[in-house]
Design goal:
Blueprint lengths: L2 E4 L11 H7 L3 E4 L7 H8 L4 E4 L8 H5 L6 E4 L9 H6 L3 E3 L6 H16 L2 H9 L15 E5 L3 H12 L3 E5 L14 H7 L2 E4 L13 H6 L5 E4 L8 H9 L5 E4 L19 E3 L8 H19 L10
Helix pairs in contact: 1-11, 5-7
Amino acid sequence: MPLVSVPDDAPPVLASSSALNQLRSFAHVSYYDTLPGTESALIERIRDTAAVLNIRSTTRFTDRVFAACPELRLVSIWGTGTDHVDLAAAARHGITVANTPGVSATSIAEHALALLLAVVRRIPEVDAGTRRGEWPRGRLVQLAGKTCGIVGYGAVGREFARLAAGVGMTTLVWTMHPERHPSLQVTPLDQLYAQSDVVSFHLRLSPETRGFAGAEAFARMKPTAIVINTARGAILDEEALVGALTNGWIAGAGLDVFTQEPLPPGARVLDAPNTVISPHCAGITPEALEAGLAMAVENIRTFFTGGHPAIVGL
């Protein structure tokens, strides 16, 4: 039985999941419900293990970590993001990196739609006003008949396109990988920004997408446009986004992800006008959680039985 380390189940999600028992049925498990905090502590927790089940993206797998763990053969990530893993270093050390693509797509897409509705219908504002004894009405936006630009067409982007169409929106799509969708009509990015009433980002964070949309992108958008981001905070230039909202270049934003998480006290985005925020929770539903943990465990089982887990490419 392979030795598998779970170095960072904090706050715990795996501990109460049936996936942990599944993992223990075919592996010796070294389990930690605290964050390692430092590279040295992470190395200590995984040094002698053949595989790691990674729960938190705050745990960073660097070249130094891989070099110090000669027995390590697999990092199985719960989630889709890989920006905390040095994929090139993993390849150099012969370590496979797997993730769980698609399992949270429905949950994240639904949350993106919820953020959008909260922004255009000003739900937080009218709720607070009504509770204060006011009767705030008007200034709301109808989505049917509007245009939704979708930047990134992976599992979440495709699901959000379906939901947007379901509320009567016309969808425009841009993707970094048009070759994967030969029948898809791809809209040039500048055109998408200029024509869309809503621009929703669904890209994986990578060196190519860090800071993908900044001041120039927001300046191309309609002054009535709404920006939605449930992907990764660093895909957007957060300071430029706050500036665009403050200066009226765009009308609002719904954000589940941020450059620094948790948000520090005094973060400028907290005071940005007509902005609805949530704490990077779009994919955390019981259904998505269980499906993702089960797939992360199954990736480990598949790897050690000679199968093909969901391998992340460079």
